[in-house]
Design brief:
single chain; 13 helices; mainly alpha; disordered C terminus; Arc Repressor Mutant, subunit A
């Protein structure tokens, strides 16, 4: 039964609580976000996970009132968070309220928002374990239901296991080179899901140097999300491009044609294995690799000012 403590602003779970992954609390504590940005994230979490869902339509007025800031400043901070992939604007149409979600895949956040190395160290060192006996004797409730951040928290352990399994394949050492390049230049943390995607691309014949080259292009374009790299590889795969040399030839032909694509891959979804029957043989038609990456960034959702 509700105790009514909410009326006197005393927190009590009997008056309602939000089921969140511990990692969200840990990330919010160590993040480099300012007060309004943290307020935006907290309000989105309150409007979503508090009600057992991952997304909700929220107006700019509601954000401003919940955070206690001006509409203009909140709008600016919404843009910053969306561009950094901390929050997601899933749907927006003129005349409709945007649909927002908190991005629980912390590894996809832009560099600088979270000190990932320090966060991993804190988790490994047991910083977040309580030292005194509390209400639950320092026990953490574990259930089969999980939120996505839990995969991120255990990414180092899972990555080692996956690396060990892949090292038995012919492309194991090359895969590790791809992973090292990604962690050094794109994002220090690589989730098990993304690791498996890179592994699949290499097993499907995508050359190590080509994957690294795509990552280099993505970094140069300021596209640090794994989705951009993955979609570019998917487009190249669909067009039959498997090596860096082929990609360079494609880019040169694209430039000679004055920047016009003859053919663009149509497959935008699905795993490389599932789309294997749809890909074309390498035709040398010419491809704008940077354009493929930039087009992926164009789909990123941000709040208009």
């Amino acid at each position: 039964m509700p105790r009514g403590d909410r009326e006197i602003l005393k927190a009590d779970i009997e008056d309602g609580y939000t089921k969140l992954s511990n990692l969200i609390l840990e990330v919010m504590a160590i993040s480099k976000m300012n007060g309004v940005q943290k307020g935006i994230c907290s309000f989105i979490l309150r409007r979503t996970y508090s009600w057992g869902k991952k997304e909700d339509r929220i107006t700019l007025n509601e954000f401003a009132e919940a955070i206690g800031s001006s509409r203009s400043y909140v709008s600016t901070q919404l843009k910053v968070l969306a561009e950094a992939n901390v929050i997601l604007r899933i749907d927006y149409s003129p005349g409709k309220t945007p649909l927002y979600s908190f991005n629980t895949r912390v590894s996809e956040w832009r560099k600088g928002f979270v000190n990932v190395k320090q966060l991993h160290k804190n988790i490994t060192d047991g910083l977040y374990k309580c030292e005194t006996e509390g209400f639950n004797k320092c026990e953490t409730l574990h259930t089969e239901e999980s939120q996505e951040p839990s995969a991120f928290a255990g990414s180092l352990k899972n990555f080692k296991e996956l690396s060990s399994n892949s090292s038995n394949t012919g492309s194991g050492s090359e895969l590790q080179e791809v992973v090292r390049f990604y962690q050094k230049n794109v994002c220090p943390s690589l989730s098990p899901l993304h690791f498996e995607k890179l592994d699949t691309w290499m097993k499907d014949g995508m050359e190590r140097d080509l994957i690294i080259y795509v990552m280099e292009k993505a970094v140069m374009a300021g596209a640090y999300r794994f989705d951009y790299i993955d979609s570019t590889l998917r487009n190249l795969y669909t067009q039959g491009v498997r090596t860096k040399e082929q990609a360079l030839v494609e880019e040169e032909r694209f430039k000679r044609r004055g920047g016009k694509n003859v053919e663009q891959g149509q497959s935008k979804r699905g795993s490389p294995t599932r789309g294997r029957g749809e890909h074309k043989n390498y035709s040398g038609a010419g491809t704008n690799l940077e354009g493929l990456i930039i087009s992926g960034r164009g789909n990123e959702a941000i709040e208009p000012g």
